[in-house]
Amino acid sequence: MNRQQQEIALRVAREVHNGKTKASAGRRLLSTEAKIPDGSAKIVIEVYQKMCEGSLFKRHLSRVDMTFFLQSFGGDGNAEELSRALDALRLHIRWRESDRVSQHGNREILAEQEARLADLLAEGVTSIAEVNREFQAKVALALVDNGDARRRRLAAAPRLPRKVAKLVYVYERSADVVAEVLAQSMGECNRCKRPAPFNRKSDGTPYLEVHHKILLSAGGDDSVENAEALCANCHRHRHFGVD
Asked: How far from the centroid of its chain's Cα atoms is residue 201's Cα?
C-alpha cells in the first residue's frame, strides 16, 4: 500500500475495531476509498484487530505495512497497547517459523519496535507515591473548580477508565518487619489505641496496616523501630491528616 492507502486502512480498521463500522462495510470502504481489493482489505482489518488483542494473526503484511501499523500503537505514551501489538507479532513469527518460513524481516521490525517500547517505558518510570500525588493534585484542582464545569466534564467523560501502562519502582519490604510489628500490636492500633476494626477474611487475624513513620521514599529504615501498626483510618490520617 502507498501512504494514502495505509492511512485510510488504519482509519477504517480502527472504526471496525471500535465497533463503529462492521467488517464487511469496512472492506467496502477500503475498496471504494483506497482501491484495496476485498481480500487484502479483509487481511488488513483482521491483522489490526489481532494486534489490538495481542493474539495470533496468520496473514502476512509487507514490511512497510507492518511497520506503519505498529507505529500507530503507543501514542500518548501508551506502552500497553504497543506491548499487545508486539505480542501478536511474536506469535505470528513463531507460527510462520514453525512452517519453516523465514521471519528475518519481521524479526528486524520486532527489534526496532521493542526498542521503541523500551523508550516509552523508560519515559514513564515513576513511583507509586508519585502516581498517587499526581492523582491527588488532579482531585484538588477538581474540588476548587466551578461545579458546573466539573459536571459538564462528568457528562462527557467515558464510563470506563482508560488503561495506561506505567513502569514503577517499589521498595522490597521485609516481611519479618511487617509480621513483628503486627505481632507486637496485639491487634490494637498504635495511634488511636482501639482494637482493629475487623478481622481478615483470609485468616481471621486483626486487620491492621503497617506504616513507616519516616517513609521509605524519604530515606526511612525498613525496621521494626520505624514502623507502627495502624487501623485503616489512622493510616490515612498519617498520610493526609493534620496532627
From this structure: 29
Write the pLDDT tens digit of every residue in 44-93. Answer: 999 999 999 999 999 999 999 999 999 999 877 778 889 999 999 999 99
From the options 3.40.50, 3.40.1800, 3.30.70, 1.10.490, give the CATH code of 175-240.
3.40.1800
Task: Identify any residues that bridge with 209 across adjacent strands, giving them in sequence order.
Answer: 230
Range 13-17 contact pairs with CB under 8 angstroms and sequence separation of 24 or more: 13/44, 13/45, 13/48, 13/49, 14/48, 16/45, 16/48, 16/49, 17/48, 17/49, 17/52
In sign, the C-alpha dihedral spanning 12, 14, 15, 19 is positive
Q: Are 74 and 120 in contact (CB under 8 A)?
A: yes
**For the chain, domain boundaries:** 3-123, 126-168, 175-240
Which segments within the chain are labelled E, that is strand?
A: 126-127, 168-169, 209-212, 227-230
CA distance 52 to 32: 25
The residue to which cell 505514551 is assigned: 77
pLDDT digits (tens, 9 = 90+) for 101-151: 999 999 999 999 999 988 887 776 667 777 777 888 888 888 888 889 899
pTM of the model: 0.54
